[in-house]
Amino acid sequence: MxxxxxxxGPIISxxxxxxxxxxxxxxxxLFIFLGGTLLVTRLIMADAFSKEExxxxxxxxxxxxxxxxxxxxxxxxxxxxxVFWPFFHSWIQALxxxxxxxxxxxxxxxxxxxxxxxLIMIYAVCARxxxxxxxxxxxxxxxxxxxxxxxxxxxxxxxxxxLGALIFLSTFYxxxxxxxxxxxxxxxxLAALLGLSIYTNYLYAxxxxxxxxxxxxxxxxxxxxxxxxxxxxxxKAALDFLWWAYRKLIVLIVLTILVAAWxxxxxxxxxxxxxLQAIFRYSGGEQVGGLWNNISYYPKAIINSYTFSPWxxxxxxxxxxxxxxxxxYRHFGKLYTFIWTALxxxxxxxxxxxxxxIYIIAPFxxxxxxxxxxxxxxxxRKFGPVVLLAIFLPSLLSAPRLVSLYLPERPRESMVxxxxxxxxxxxxxxxxxxxxNLQHLNSEGIAFRFWDWNxxxxxxxxxxxxxxxxxxxxxxxxxLDSASPYGNEILDDNIFLWNAFLxxxxxxxxxxxxxxxxxxxxxxxxxxxxxxxxxx
Length: 536
Prior knowledge:
globular; two-stranded antiparallel sheet
């Protein structure tokens, strides 16, 4: 794909457009072909919501309903009760529901749009590094993003990861531009972008804000040296320091206002507690024991998860140890600081580990690698093509994995078909209940799928089976074969307790089977039970 893009280059050059425009056009062409394939094979044909996807969708759904009803009191309430995952993503999700309608597709399409915006921003950021070769750096980085298993995954899942990465990347881009100017309002905008991290995910804010602080303080040392020689240089020597302090004060004040606006409006103590828990205790992921395992966790994640080829992943990680690239490429030092600040914080201060935790710096990782590729090919001069082949040719050994990213093998049936069956068999005026907790069939996903039901939908396991039985007319469940792929998605014992409860009620003659369907290819049997008249 990269070599194809390079063949297109001379053709586009004949159209007499700038190098930046040429690269941008190739980026759009790549996205049309690869992104279009991703849209069909990974988004339109996706399985039912995972548990976390459904949770995010429900937040957006509540706000969508409030907007449709013009109930701003409820909108404010539903916004403020999102204390574990703040509301910025759900605000945007609600707008997508208004435009596209409420569906799993429209929820996930938000992530797809964010992915496209991230690709454009990656290209724009790369153009800032070099006027001559920035467009080539951008094309390499965009191609790497389009072939990254982790980035293509979150392009089609309804989550916060893509939005967090876009905010971090956009903030870097804005700062790289505004640093060269002396306009106050631009730093207000920069602070607003930084503040969005607080309203998106606490963990992201914990990584983004210190990265900017470390990067900003990096300039303080040389400025203090200038101030120390004031008597010899005169007052003008202090202007750089004063302007630096003035801009940072603006950012600090605006950022403080944004943080206070969230934490000091309702449930302050709970928000602070959840902030600390979300970052240091319950951020998800897995516990990793041993010093070496902790230190090596994210290097392994970069190698194995952020590119389709472990060879390229190894080169990406190696490129993080080339600080001398900052001597040739402007703004490289800032990028370097952001990456290492986030990696050190995640490694040393966050108890749990997960590959997606470093997703917000994924674009930066790909950009640094692309800069390194550009540097070595340019310095090799006439041997540049040989260097490119040496870098990318071994990755062809992983070509099957790349193909599976865009053309995954899928069974003819999925949990989407199970939900379709439930919805087609039941009338919306009847109350229904289910207590199943699988990764792709869960209470949140059922609540979202039946959001417009005209009768109560009871799917929260915390309600309890007896209360569900008293309040519902129909009861939905599934049973899994021992070889079913969904057997690995069982999150707790609710499915077993629920099926045992229904079996007992059927034995007692309080319910009868209303309908059942076998989904052979996935080893799932869906069943619906109806409460008997004399049991109501």
